Amino acid sequence: MNIEQILQAAEKILEPWNKETLRPEANRVDIVMQADDLHAATVALHEAHWGYLSAITGMDLGVDSGQMEALYHFCSGPAIVSLRVRVPRENTSIPSIADILPPAIFFERELSETLGFKVAGLDESDRLFIPDDWPPDVYPLRADFSPEQATPVAEKHVEEIPEQGMLTGNTFVIPIGPQHPALKEPGHFQFTVDGEIVTGAKMRLGYAHRGIEKAAESRSWFQNLYLFERVCGICSHTHAMAYCMGVEKLAQVEAPPRAHAIRELVAGLERIHSHLLWLGVAAHEAGFDTLFMYSWRDRETVMNLLEQVTGNRVNYSANVLGGVKCDIGAEQAEKIKEGVDYLETRIRHYLEVVTTDAMFLNRTRGIGSITAAEAERFGLLGPTARASGLMRDVRIEAPYGAYVRYPVSLVTRTNGDLEARCEVRLEELLVSCFAIRAILDNMPDGPLTVRMPRKIPAGETISRVEAPRGELLYFIKSNGGENPARVHVRTPSLCNWVSVLEKAVGRQLADVPMLIAGMDPCFSCNDRLVSVVRPHGSEILSWTQLRKLGIEYYSR
Amino acid sequence: MRIGTMLKDIIASMFKKNSTQHYPFEKNPTPERFRGNLYYDPSACTGCCLCVKDCPSKAIELVTIDRATKRFVLKYHMDRCVYCGQCAINCKFKCMGMSNKDWEHAALDKKEFTVYYGKDEDVKQFLEKLTASTDAETNE
Ligand code: SF4
Ligand code: SF4
Questions:
Q1: In this structure, which ligand is nearest to the CA of B115?
Q2: What residues of chain B lie within 8 A of the CB of A325, using their CB?
Q3: Closest residue (by CA) to atom 7 of ligand 1?
Q4: Per the domain annotation, does A526 fall within a domain?
Q5: What is the CATH number of the domain that holds A98?
Q6: What range defines the domain where residue A42 resides?
Q7: Quick check: A317 and B85 CB within 8 A?
Q8: Does B67 touch chain A (CB under 8 A)?
Q9: C-alpha triplet A398, A232, A420: angle, nearest 5°
């Protein structure tokens, strides 16, 4: 099926609720519908197995228009169908679709906390990603928001944690984080355990929330590149790439082929660094510190390559709107090849280690298995989804930039356990190594950049790229000015959390760190919200409560 | 399944030197392209301010002493700079670049992170004026 046919299929499914069809881009169809029809339409798409819910973008269309809009982006291969729902600003009620598609809960939370959408049935008693002392009824992404409105208020009272964490008899609540020796990044989890077995899981993110989407509104298109590059330190290049490609699409500017090739090359190197980093963390969580140390030692090779090519180890700044900054000469190409050859032998070695080491396999084989059907339901992305047999890889489904010219092959497994995730990630690195060599051998000649206008023509675009952790989606809207009107970022980690929370239940507490590490969470990426309601209710501690708890604990 | 899959690596490492380096006694040479501190060459600067315009962190300010004779002072806030290199890309006259030598930033006082670039006499004149105005303020 070509894109047109896929889109037509969706249009046909959505026919009964369709009020207006828009074609913002060649691969997209927007279906305008009423808020009341949303649920039925989602059910229809879901039952027809048409794609997956990739993100929900909320927008305030301004005080003058008096309307707000929510866009439900469904992706199937390269095709994207967005259900557009407009509601008046005074009455922003929309139905929830989380009963059909569990990951929607995250997106709906975001709508509710940043824009004040009233999502039916959403528990609004606790905050998920904006601070506890944020004033009520103030929504940062609304058009009429002003910073003065955000004066902190006294924190809302949240249920107290039970004495000694004990609920009843053998049931305890174990809070982990946001500062915890076993967790290297700021997230907060609460596991309810019955003896050793986890019976409920809950989380709270947002400790590293920086309000980047808001900040973008007041910066120029050029300045924003560096802002979005800093959404994540590990996959900074993919963020910059997604942003650049989106803005270039809006401006109807095509970056030169050489720039695309260099972008893919840096993305390949970045994937190697990211997955090796992950391997180390996962090994460490499993108590296999030898693997941790050696994989991180080898990771230095790729870090040095990145530094040589781009000029920095972390925020590479390889991109610039309209192309790339850094060229790759013959000498550099040699060095990259040398480095990649070494890395390939090491990756093969690690692949053997993770599939044969008895102790490591005890911690990974058959643990946290996710079937393809479950992966589909949780809306998983990236290597986590591919380890369960889902064919989800934007580089292959909807090739962008240089991936058309230098394709990569799909790596999947079907058992969906932690072992499969290790294998998928490491094998993907081999694929990246091949792609890097192919690029170096056939590098197109030509300029590195094209001129970009300062003002970007009005329009909307969706830019999807495959980050190391999965599909990254940028929704970019321009009103024709020097600054973007809205940039919405949906990072892959956000979609993968459901798997951890669902899978922890029924397992031993000792497996939890591995489960968390298994999906390769990136906290700064997804610090936007979250909580999943599980049976055996527990609660979220406010900052004051945490602090009080800490002080009391240490004064004992 | 077997055990000790990484034993070989460990044994091999016993005969190698450490991977970790004893910084600051031992330093990796920085690559050619490394983006350290910004440098500025005032001789070709036209004062167009394109560099200032796109700096994502408002780390540079251009002070015009005399536009007719092309006398400018660039005030550079090292502590705000994110070392992205956009300013250097923007400058059509190649007045700017990022140094790969000068990158170790540690100081006991934040003041040291604000530096002034320009022709010596311009910077001197600018700083004198600056001190004069702050003196005037303190006297008030
Ligand atoms: S390198 Fe980037 S942050 Fe630093 S002065 Fe130049 S534009 Fe500004
Ligand atoms: S862009 Fe170049 S010429 Fe223009 S003000 Fe900056 S340094 Fe001077």
A1: 1
A2: 85, 89
A3: B55
A4: no
A5: 3.30.460.80
A6: 3-122
A7: yes
A8: no
A9: 60
Neighbours of A310 (CB within 10 A): 27
Angle between helices A221-229 and A236-251 (to 10 degrees): 160
Q: Which domain holds residue B65?
A: 32-135
What's the CATH code of the domain at B103? 3.30.70.3270
pLDDT digits (tens, 9 = 90+) for A83-106: 999 999 988 999 999 888 888 888
* Candidates B5, B13, B21, B100, partner chain A, best to mutate (most A CBs within 10 A): B5
Which of A465, A492, A519 is the C-terminal boundary of a domain?
A492
| Contact list, A269 vs chain B (CB under 8 Å) | none
| B3 domain-assigned | no
The structural domain count of chain B equals 1
Over the stretch A22-69, which tens digit does the pLDDT of each residue have? 998 999 999 999 999 999 999 999 999 898 999 999 999 988 989 999
Q: Taking 80 as the threshold, does the pLDDT of residue A420 lie above it?
A: yes
Q: Give the max Cα distance, chain B.
A: 81
How many structural domains compose chain A?
A: 2
Which of the listed residues B84, B91, B95 should we mutate to test ligand 1's pocket, taking the one with most ligand atoms within 8 A of CB?
A: B84
C-alpha span between A387 and A522 (Å, rounded): 18
Are the beta carbons of B6 and A225 separated by less than 8 Å? Answer: no
ipTM of the complex: 0.91
The answer to whether residue A505 sits within a structural domain is no
Least confident range of A88-102, A208-222, A484-498, A526-540: A526-540
B38 close to ligand 2 (CB < 6 Angstrom): no
Q: Would you call A342 an interface residue with chain B, using a CB distance cutoff of 8 Å? A: no
Residue B126 Cα distances to A270, B42, B84, B111, angstroms: 44, 14, 27, 16
Does A118 share its domain with A239?
A: no
User: Would A177 be classed as within a structural domain?
Assistant: no
B85 touching A (Cβ < 8 Å): yes
| Amino acid found at A38 | L
Please report, for the domain that includes residue A464, its CATH number: 1.10.645.10
Question: For residue B12, what is the nearest residue in chain A, using CA coordinates?
Answer: A294
Give CA B25 to chain center in angstroms.
Answer: 23
Rounded (10°) CA dihedral A432, A435, A436, A441: 160
> Which of A94, A122, A150 lies at the terminal end of a domain, its last residue?
A122
Ligand 2 atom with the smallest distance to the CA of B62 is 5
Q: Strand pairing partners for A357?
A: B2
Ligand 1 site residues, Cβ closer than 6 angstroms = B 38, 55-57, 59-60, 81-87
Residue B1 included in any domain: no
